[in-house]
Design goal:
The protein is mainly beta and 108 residues long. The chain has one helix spanning 52-58; strands at residues 8-10, 20-30, 33-40, 48-51, 80-83, 87-89, 94-96, 104-107.
Amino acid sequence: MTSQQFAYIESDSSLGAASALPYMPISLIYGEKEVSVSALVDSGAALSVLPYSTGVQLGAVWDEQTIPVNLSGNLAASEAAHYSLPAAFPAFHRSVSPSAGHVATMSR
């Protein structure tokens, strides 16, 4: 098994190191578009949530999504929809296809 270390990035300057979370670079692909983003490393997550703005960058059309997703926790009030996206993980020299069961949820 390959192990990697990822930078912890502070998400709230008023909290400093207490708000630091691990992020890794990934590339998301939707149709002919590809967007490189930093993704939160959460090895226990059942799905990935991407911001509405990232979906728009990829060319996803919110109103065309017909599978609603119910989120919980701090995202419980967010409207979300299902997308299946291929992703590339440069840190691991690996790509995955949506058929591999990786699901992204776009939240707005």
